[in-house]
Amino acid sequence: MTKKEWIDAKLKIVKELEILTDEEVIIQEHLINDNYLVPHDNLIFLCSRQNFNSRINSLLHEAGHVIIFHLSDRDFTDSQKGITNEYKIDFLQQEILAWNYGYELSNSLDLDIDYDLFNKHARKHLLEYIRWVEL
Ligand SMILES: [Zn+2]
């Protein structure tokens, strides 16, 4: 993925999320090695040290979290009750869902994604969470 393709894909994703949520979506690229969503602000942080192929995968995953936050009516256990097994399992389910919504989003927007890399990326992150759940 070239820089231009990354910028085009990023704009398409933001536009689609804004249509879905009816709110402004902001993407902030930073040098910190972490990607995450600040849900109530629709603010996605992405690590700019990633190449564009990895960055688009991270963005699709965080976009999946935006979709879950705004559009899912499932009631996931929150961390206010402590890091219980229920919380961990719900957290893991949300991570799996976010990758899935990200995948569907890329398909519906007809983005040119390296799906081998996307799946590798998803498996690596899910494995980290599975190990955390098992602790
Ligand atoms: Zn996630």
Description:
It contains four helices and three strands. Helix 1 runs parallel beside helix 2 (52-71), helix 2 crosses helix 4 (115-134) and helix 3 (85-108) runs antiparallel to helix 4 (115-134). The protein is globular, with a radius of gyration of 15 Å. The termini are far apart. By secondary structure, it is mainly α. The chain has a three-stranded mixed beta sheet, covered by helices on one side. It binds zinc ion (ZN).
Annotation field: number of helices: 4
Give the termini distance in whole angstroms: 37 Å
Bound molecules: zinc ion
Number of strands: 3
Quaternary organization:
single chain
**Roughly how many Å is the radius of gyration?**
15 Å
Task: Give a quick account of the main beta sheet: strands, pairing sense, barrel closure.
Answer: 3 strands, mixed
Strand content: 5-15%
The portion of residues assigned to helices is 55-70%
| Series of H and E elements | HEEEHHH
Helix and strand content put the structural class at mainly alpha
Structurally, the number of domains stands at 1
Could you name the key traits of this structure?
single chain, 135 residues, mainly alpha, three-stranded mixed β-sheet, 4 helices, 3 strands, binds zinc ion
Secondary structure layout plus pairing:
Layout: H1 3-21, E1 26-30, E2 36-38, E3 43-47, H2 52-71, H3 85-108, H4 115-134
Parallel strand pairs: 1-3
Antiparallel strand pairs: 2-3
Bound molecules: zinc ion (ZN).
Zinc ion is lined by residues 61, 65, 95, 98.
Can you summarize this structure?
The protein has 4 helices and 3 strands; from the N terminus they run H-E-E-E-H-H-H.
